[in-house]
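re: the backbone from monday

yeah here it is again, tokenized this time
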């Protein structure tokens, strides 16, 4: 027999004191970290097979805690490491182990207990344990997270509101009206593990709704409220009230709004067609309660469960595409059911704003090395939620950063000889393209952004993107003509600047690179914009020069109608008046019926060809006004560079246009 048997009947030795040191500001989530004892800590020395002095808790002859409910949390540094009340793992006896933490429940309160050390008798045997405890234990200092904050009931139904906290949070209940009755409830194995409340209301003698507030207050002083609406007849209620309007993401969205009703028939939604709205049975509604095991201290009766489960839970599913309309879309959500005949008007409102999103660069060139590139995004969006971004190539991985308002490109090194390309797309909720970026990454070989360059008459320069191999030197870049030069500029070797002197004649030169077949062809005209052009009988003023093509115009002295007949020819080209001119010239008696065109074509004489009436977008606004060759209907045609249409029979001035190459 153990030596300490003689101590069985000795009185308990209790040593109680308030714990010294700082307030426990560290919740002690790490059991290996030393945490100060919480305020109100009490130490006791408890003999085995005797009461501990902690309510009904005792240590039995088998060195177990007994006389209450317990959960062992395992080894930890001290009492302050016990920070929460578990939902599972509870038993009526648990082994007493030095260094272990425990949570206990006895006589309506939770306790946290820490076993510091064994008590050893004079003969060397274990006679008890040195304990620390604190009560009432409030668990995590957080508010109750309610599955719903609003319930609508009549006397025939009841409601269960579950708590979504991961641990047990002790609390008290207050109600603002005597007709609402609220009891603590549990879905767990024990009634004291309250993770829900059970709500019912008395019969109302009036045919009008009344409201009450239920306040749940934790031991830490945090409050959560449930609004209770007592009603009569059929009803529909939002599980979570919506303040103002339900906001949908401008880039497209799909939201589910949970509702509860005592109507079992199919509900229909009406949003007047602005958004796609459906009512569906809830998949996993936040408000639909888990089945209770206990209400108060008693086993839940089937009648009580039936009352709580007689309600029907639905989701109003609202789907909206991206709003590109530059205006806010608004609508109200109403519900109806035919049997019984019932309508809920303006249950809530839905609003979706428009948005702007622009990317600073639509094409980027990257070095051959691995790295990151950030492209700025300008937007009025509050977040990048519901946006996505894709890449056509695995070596280029895009991501959106709202904090930086940027598109971040992460690229692998390009060990190949050639430039490689990827296309990046920013997509809305429905995977429609909002913006795109072309990505070019240089390889180890020579890359030229342009291989043909055009200059006007004056001395000029142009810089293009290049990738020059490391072995290529400045002397390896050669020009075929003295008036032409090419040099690497900028901080890297990725820009080539090409310069030309003023030209007196049309000329051609080449930039070459030693050891490579690649070359750049450079063409320079003897004309510039606003110069007077005179070649082979063609005379006029140059007004545009692009990519080796020049345009000149000549103002005719008289005014002319576009046509004197009301016929739609199909002369609608907006960028090339030559197309419209040929359509007109294919008509019978066109010189008589289309005077403006005939006046221009009269310039094509004595071996001169190529004069035509320009299309509407072929001439610049601000130039002398006159007819364009672009028609819009059988009676209307466009003015040159104008946004307005005019009657074809009206007399306006005419400018003839001629093209030339350089």
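seq for it, each position gets an aa:
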């Amino acid at each position: 027999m153990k030596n300490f048997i003689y101590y069985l009947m000795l009185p308990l030795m209790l040593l109680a004191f308030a714990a010294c040191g700082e307030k426990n500001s560290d919740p002690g989530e790490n059991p290996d970290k030393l945490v100060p004892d919480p305020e109100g800590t009490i130490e006791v020395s408890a003999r085995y097979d005797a009461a501990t002095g902690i309510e009904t808790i005792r240590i039995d002859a088998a060195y177990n805690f007994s006389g209450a409910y317990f959960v062992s949390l395992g080894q930890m540094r001290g009492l302050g490491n016990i920070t929460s009340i578990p939902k599972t793992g509870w038993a009526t006896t648990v082994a007493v182990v030095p260094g272990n933490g425990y949570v206990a429940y006895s006589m309506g309160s939770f306790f946290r207990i820490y076993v510091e050390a064994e008590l050893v008798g004079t003969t060397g045997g274990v006679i008890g344990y040195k304990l620390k405890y604190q009560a009432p234990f409030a668990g995590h200092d957080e508010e109750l997270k309610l599955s719903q904050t609003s319930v609508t009931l009549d006397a025939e139904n009841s409601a269960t509101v579950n708590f979504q906290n991961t641990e047990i949070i002790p609390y008290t209940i207050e109600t603002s009206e005597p007709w609402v009755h609220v009891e603590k409830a549990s879905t767990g194995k024990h009634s004291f593990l309250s993770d829900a409340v059970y709500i019912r209301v008395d019969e109302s003698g009036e045919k009008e709704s009344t409201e009450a507030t239920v306040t749940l207050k934790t031991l830490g002083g945090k409050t959560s409220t449930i609004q209770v609406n007592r009603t009569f007849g059929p009803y529909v209620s939002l599980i979570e009230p919506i303040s103002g309007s339900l906001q949908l993401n401008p880039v497209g969205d799909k939201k589910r709004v949970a509702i509860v009703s005592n109507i079992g028939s199919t509900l229909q939604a009406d949003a007047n067609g602005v958004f796609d709205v459906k009512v569906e049975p809830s998949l996993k509604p936040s408000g639909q309660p888990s089945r209770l095991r206990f209400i108060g201290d008693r086993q839940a009766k089937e009648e009580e469960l039936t009352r709580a489960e007689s309600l029907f839970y639905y989701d109003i599913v609202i789907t909206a595409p991206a709003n590109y309309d530059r205006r806010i879309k608004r609508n109200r959500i109403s519900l109806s059911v035919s049997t019984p005949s019932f309508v809920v008007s303006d249950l809530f409102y839905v609003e979706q704003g428009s948005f702007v999103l622009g990317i600073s660069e639509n094409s980027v060139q990257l070095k051959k090395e691995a790295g990151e590139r950030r492209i700025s995004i300008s937007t009025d969006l509050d977040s990048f939620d519901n946006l996505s971004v894709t890449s056509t190539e695995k070596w280029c991985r895009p991501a959106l950063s709202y904090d930086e308002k940027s598109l971040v490109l992460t690229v692998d090194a390009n060990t190949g000889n050639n430039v490689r390309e990827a296309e990046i797309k920013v997509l809305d909720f429905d995977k429609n393209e909002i913006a795109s970026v072309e990505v070019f990454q240089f390889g180890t070989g020579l890359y030229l952004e342009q291989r043909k360059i055009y200059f006007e008459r004056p001395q000029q320069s142009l810089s293009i993107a290049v990738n020059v191999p490391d072995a290529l030197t400045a002397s390896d870049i050669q020009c075929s003509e003295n008036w032409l030069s090419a040099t690497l500029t900028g901080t890297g070797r990725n820009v080539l600047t090409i310069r030309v002197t003023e030209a007196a004649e049309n000329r051609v030169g080449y930039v070459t690179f030693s050891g490579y077949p690649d070359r750049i062809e450079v063409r320079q005209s003897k004309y510039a914009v606003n110069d007077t052009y005179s070649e082979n009988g063609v005379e006029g003023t140059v007004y545009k020069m692009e990519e080796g093509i020049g345009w000149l115009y000549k103002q005719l002295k008289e005014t002319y109608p576009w046509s004197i007949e009301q016929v739609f020819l199909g002369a609608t080209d907006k960028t090339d008046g030559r197309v419209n001119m040929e359509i007109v010239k294919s008509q019978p008696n066109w010189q008589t019926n289309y005077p403006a065109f005939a006046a221009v074509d009269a310039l094509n004489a004595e071996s001169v060809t190529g004069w035509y009436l320009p299309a509407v977008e072929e001439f610049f606004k601000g130039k002398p006004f006159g007819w364009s060759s672009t028609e819009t209907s059988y009676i209307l045609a466009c003015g040159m560079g104008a946004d307005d249409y005019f009657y074809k029979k009206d007399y306006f001035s005419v400018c003839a246009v001629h093209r030339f190459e350089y």
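The helical segments are 302-308, 577-585, 590-593, 595-601. The longest strand covers residues 549-561.
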